Amino acid sequence: MTTVDPSKPYDPDNIFAKILRGEVPCNKVYEDDHAFAFHDINPQAPVHILVIPKGEYVSWDDFSAKASDAEMAGFVKAVGHVAREQGLPVRGYRLLANIGRNGGQEVPHLHVHLFGGGPLGPMLAG
Ligand code: 5GP
């Protein structure tokens, strides 16, 4: 799959924008004013959930530069809430955000991967 070009503006037709609008189905786990969470279609761990902000941000870089304090607080709280709701803090889990080409980001709407449910191995493979 093609990786995200960080110089391009937000594309409202990206797959996660379509999921947010309800145009593409997903296995939803959580939603509030600022965030939406759903299971990854191709899980890389026993639990693999994606948490996305509702605002139009390409990446963590874009979000951290432009989002309001309320959006940032809401998103961070939602990530923690989803992890607790899934029982992940008990044995531990991992957060990951890929950014741009070197990060291997494929979908140009900020998403935090939440991995858990078992030992996750080394931080980086390959
Ligand atoms: P990235 O490489 O951009 O950090 O991760 C994109 C993630 O989105 C991948 O783990 C991929 O499996 C997931 N993904 C791509 N398309 C869809 C989709 O249509 N539905 C869901 N639930 N996940 C998707």
Automatic annotation (TrEMBL):
Cross-referenced SUPFAM superfamilies: HIT-like
InterPro entries: Histidine_triad_CS, Histidine_triad_HIT, HIT-like, HIT-like_sf
Superkingdom of the source species: Bacteria
GO molecular function: catalytic activity
The protein's name: Uncharacterized protein
